[in-house]
Amino acid sequence: MVLDDFRLEGKVALVTGGGTGIGSGILKGLAEAGADIACVYNAHEPTEVEAYVKSLGRRFLAIHADVAQMNDLQRIMDETLQEYGRLDILVNNAGICPRASALEYTEEMWDRIIQINEKAVFFLSQLAARQFLKQGSRGKIINLASMMSFLGGFNTTAYTASKHAVQGLTRVLASEWGGCGINVNALAPGWIKTNLSAPLRADPARDASVKARIPMGDWGDPEDFKGAAVLLASDAGNYINGATVPVDGGYLTK
């Protein structure tokens, strides 16, 4: 039955930046579908999502790490495998978007954004793929792209460059690893109600301009990512590979 194909019982999902925002919505969806969770966090302990996942009867592992530090990537994988013994799903959600005009961007800003949004995505994906092959099992990788994987944006030079790169990485890894039973896809968020977007939503003029371009008429919520994430993480999405799926209320249609 088709609904059985969406089930994730017995699967282990590793989600970076899963304690808040879009990552928390994805994480909750995977847990609701049956997956046990390893959640990477940096600044804020994921106490709320941990309680929610455990209330579902699923296991939860919190890993304090900074994906900007290359040594932390191997530790993230090691701690996940020590706790669960396997990995089935990787969600590369962690990302940053400090804003400045292209004339004012510093090398430090550029390097940190590219490190977190792009370099860490590839090398954590590489670690996951090696584990999938070692297990001899199918694996799913979900990257977080963006509207800026398709558009130029404004005051987001390095972020836009990194999110174009995420879409390219998704495609090349899907091409290389698809024959090994590893699916690599991406989700492209639109305007979502998160802590990062709170200042924009608090500006009446900016809030109105954003809503005016969204056919659905409002900002999205982190929970809007549950269904798409479960599709790409489950057997229901086994023939979806190399895709970047917008979750934007139709923003990109205008």
Describe the structure.
This protein is α/β, with parallel strands linked by helices and 254 residues long. It has one domain: NAD(P)-binding Rossmann-like Domain (Rossmann fold, 3-Layer(aba) Sandwich). 43% of the residues lie in helices and 15% in strands. The chain contains 8 helices and 7 strands. It has a 7-stranded parallel β-sheet, with helices on both faces. Strand 2 (36-41), helix 2 (47-55) and strand 3 form a beta-alpha-beta unit. The longest helix is centred in the middle third of the chain and has 29 residues, at 107-135. The chain is globular. The mean pLDDT is 95.
Please give a handful of descriptors for the protein shown.
254 residues; alpha/beta; Rossmann fold; seven-stranded parallel β-sheet; 8 helices; 43% helix; globular
Instruction: Give the DSSP E fraction (strand runs of 2 or more residues).
Output: 5-15%
Could you tell me the number of beta strands? 7
Mean pLDDT: 95
Count of helical stretches: 8
| CATH class assignment | Alpha Beta
**How far is the first residue's CA from the last residue's CA?**
37 Å
Q: What letter string, H or E per element, gives the SSE order? A: EHEHEHEHEHEHHHE
- Examine the coordinates and then state which fold CATH places here, giving the name of the CATH topology: Rossmann fold
The rough form would be described as: globular
Q: Regions with pLDDT < 50 over 5+ consecutive residues? A: none
Strand order of the largest sheet: 3-2-1-4-5-6-7
**Proper CATH architecture:** 3-Layer(aba) Sandwich
CATH superfamily heading: NAD(P)-binding Rossmann-like Domain
State the secondary-structure class.
alpha/beta
Count of folded domains: 1
| Main sheet: strands, sense, barrel | 7 strands, parallel
Query: How many whole angstroms does the radius of gyration measure?
Result: 17 Å
Kindly state the percentage of residues in helix: 40-55%
